[in-house]
Amino acid sequence: MNTEHFKFFQNKECEYFPCHKTNDIENFNCLFCYCPLYMLKGDCGGNFIKNAGIKDCSKCLVPHSSGSYENIMNKIKEVIEKGSDF
């Protein structure tokens, strides 16, 4: 039984689809519409820039690319640990 479909979701009816420029629209994953790694700041592993002191992820495709589910699930423990600091 193949149980991999939960790792990919695409909403082509979203008014923002795709929310980032991509050459691979068919594999654009919307599952992590808001990146759960954002709070890791510079340790998120994504392609971001700092713009006037604000983290700008507009060119980052990490949560939307192939393998994004595995990548995010591997780093989610760090997010949980940061959340427990509050």
Automatic annotation (TrEMBL):
Residues 5-82 form the Cysteine-rich small domain. This is Zn-finger protein. It comes from the Bacteria. InterPro entries: Zf-like. It holds the Pfam family zf-like. It comes from Sedimentibacter acidaminivorans.
